[in-house]
């Protein structure tokens, strides 16, 4: 582990946030994409006027007379886009705000503190890095991140960063296999306020369960068709920081890709995500206060026999605005 960190440091590991904070007037050459891969920022393609993207009210799922309407809307969104936004999803705004606050505090830590978590091993349960994989990327991307395994939470949370203090639940208590809410009631002085990201991870795990039930129904399957696989599956929380960039037209925060797993539940603090539509055009996903983004992954495409498509997406960066995002990546177990 120490040798890996040393090699990364020797390779002039410099995070995107460090570059922004240093006031570089242009992005270094290693971040510059070939002309054909650069985002067409400000062009007519990819504006929200071109395509109406689906926004689904999940509260309808809990109303017997309206559940079928929500299931139909999910069916249409999955067929046409492999993507939709959800409102009234049940995750309190305070939980969302606390998670974003914790992310802000983490990325504001001194570089030396964050470097304690750096690794080129993509299977490391907790990994801080920049770009996608600093040690192997031929072209780098304008992103800093921390990824951590999150399900079951009691198994992984003690490996999470202990700094900043608000980031995770206090050491030792999660081994009791209780939820954070239960621990907060039993140990209010010890657990609070060190549970912000853990609460968000739990909430997105429950939301993923509801979404898989609805997607199963939309395919004509039993509601609980994927229940066992969901509990046996994995959850990875990727917390991303896309700092302001002096030349957003020549680089990206993330390249075009689809997610391997079943669903990704995405929280973004401002606009930046783009999805590819059926005409191969890039469409900007508007920022909606309080909404979460649901992206279908490759596993759902396979499970649906291609009826539903995993969505190709990328992330653009902004000259004036730093964007934070939480990508809760859910995967069913491999058989």
Automatic annotation (TrEMBL):
Involved in the regulation of shoot development and salicylic acid (SA) homeostasis. It comes from Brassica oleracea var. oleracea. It holds the Pfam family 2OG-FeII_Oxy. It comes from the Eukaryota. GO terms for molecular function: metal ion binding; oxidoreductase activity. This is Fe2OG dioxygenase domain-containing protein. Residues 232-335 form the Fe2OG dioxygenase domain. SUPFAM superfamilies: Clavaminate synthase-like.
């Amino acid at each position: 582990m120490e040798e890996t960190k040393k090699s990364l440091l020797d390779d002039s590991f410099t995070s995107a946030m460090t570059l922004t904070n240093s006031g570089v007037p242009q992005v270094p050459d290693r971040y510059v994409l070939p002309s054909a891969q650069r985002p067409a920022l400000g062009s007519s393609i990819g504006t929200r006027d071109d395509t109406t993207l689906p926004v689904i009210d999940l509260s309808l799922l809990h109303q017997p007379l309206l559940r079928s309407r929500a299931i139909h809307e999910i069916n249409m969104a999955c067929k046409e886009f492999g993507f939709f936004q959800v409102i009234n999803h049940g995750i309190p705004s305070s939980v969302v705000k606390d998670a974003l606050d914790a992310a802000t505090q983490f990325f504001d830590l001194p570089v030396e503190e964050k470097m304690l978590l750096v690794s080129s091993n993509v299977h490391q349960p907790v990994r801080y890095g920049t770009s996608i994989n600093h040690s192997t990327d031929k072209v780098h991307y304008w992103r800093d991140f921390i990824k951590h395994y999150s399900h079951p939470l009691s198994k992984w949370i003690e490996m999470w960063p202990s700094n900043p203090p608000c980031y995770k639940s206090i050491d030792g208590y999660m081994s009791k296999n209780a939820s954070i809410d239960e621990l907060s009631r039993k140990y209010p002085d010890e657990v609070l306020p060190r549970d912000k990201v853990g609460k968000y991870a739990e909430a997105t795990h429950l939301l993923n369960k509801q979404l898989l039930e609805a997607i199963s129904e939309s395919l004509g399957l039993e509601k609980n068709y994927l229940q066992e696989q969901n509990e046996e599956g994995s959850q990875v929380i990727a917390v991303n920081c896309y700092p302001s960039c002096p030349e957003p037209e020549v680089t990206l925060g993330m390249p075009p890709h689809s997610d391997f797993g079943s669903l990704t539940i995405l929280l973004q603090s401002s606009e930046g995500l783009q999805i590819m539509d059926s005409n191969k055009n890039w469409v900007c996903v508007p920022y909606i206060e309080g909404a979460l983004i649901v992206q279908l992954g490759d596993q759902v495409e396979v499970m649906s026999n291609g009826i539903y498509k995993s969505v190709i997406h990328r992330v653009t960066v902004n000259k004036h605005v730093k964007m934070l995002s939480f990508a809760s990546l859910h995967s069913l177990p491999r058989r």
